[in-house]
Task: structure prediction
Amino acid sequence: MDSVILKTAIRFLLPLLLLASVFLFLRGHNEPGGGFVGGLLASGAIALYAMTHSAAAARQIVRVPPRFLIGAGLLFALVSGVAPLFFGRPFLTGLWTTITTEGLGKLHIGTPLLFDLGVYCVVTGVTLVFVFSLLEE
Result:
């Protein structure tokens, strides 16, 4: 595409869309959302950038091959499912811990967050593989 307006707009929209993607990813534990919709929004933002500039330019922004994202996401999901087995609990049982930080206070982190991170990575990676393969043909 040679639209100057769209090329300029996506430079400003890309960081905002990626930030919204992270917000949806984190919000999904207590309300609807989570890894799937966050991953779709992230890959949609990168797909817009790839359509306006090029697939090669979008690959430089991602910095990680999409197939690596798929593998890492599957590994995160597997670890979140297997971790409870080491504590004598069933597969995919939620484990929780509290971490205290200076700036954020107490954070309650659990294996569902790790599972959602895996879903986020897999959805982003699969969608980017499709988008890049279509744009490179």
Summary: The mean pLDDT is 92.
